[in-house]
Amino acid sequence: MTILTDTAALIAVLGTAVIYGTDIFCALVLRPAATGASDASVADLLGRVHAYGDRRLPVPGVLAIVATALAAATDDSTPGRTGGGIALAALLLWLAIYLRVSAPINKRLRAAAASHTVPADTRQLQERWDSVIWPRALLQTIALTGLLTLLIS
User: Fold this and answer.
1) Pseudo-torsion of CA 4, 98, 21, 80, nearest 10°?
2) CA separation, residue 67 to residues 23, 78, 146 (Å)
């Protein structure tokens, strides 16, 4: 491994770890808590959570993807390139799920919180969002595992 590969891999691990931790927290804590909350509470609180998350989390997410690609491309070992490739594929699939399912729901809940309204389909929105949080968390786990393989190879 080179200094460039090592640095990129470390940045990728740290960026991925931020998103991994967020998704695991949402799967284990936020999802079941929202299930028992009123629609008004879900729309208001989760709309505000998404307002902050959607504004702040793209930085570590994008850094993770770019750094993963760089680390995988510059690693000189087969296990490292393989781990990096798997990590990159998992991160890109995660991004596709996020953009297709989670982001539009986040946008609706952010708008509801900002306007102090409760969408009539709040429960359905949250159920749809919940339906992809475990797959997202699993993809982050795969990505982090691949990156750690790259880092230690």
Assistant:
1) -30
2) 20, 18, 13
| Residue 80 lies in domain | 3-152
Domain count, the chain: 1
43-65: per-residue pLDDT in tens?
Answer: 999 999 999 999 999 999 999 99
Q: How far, rounded to the nearest angstrom, does the alpha carbon of residue 140 sit from its chain's CA centroid? A: 7
pLDDT reported for residue 57: 97
Q: What angle do CA 78, 82, 88 make, to 5 degrees?
A: 145
What angle in degrees, to the nearest 10, is found between the helix axes of 122-152 and 103-115?
130
CB neighbour list of residue 97: distance below 8 Å, 6 or more residues apart: 132, 135, 136, 139
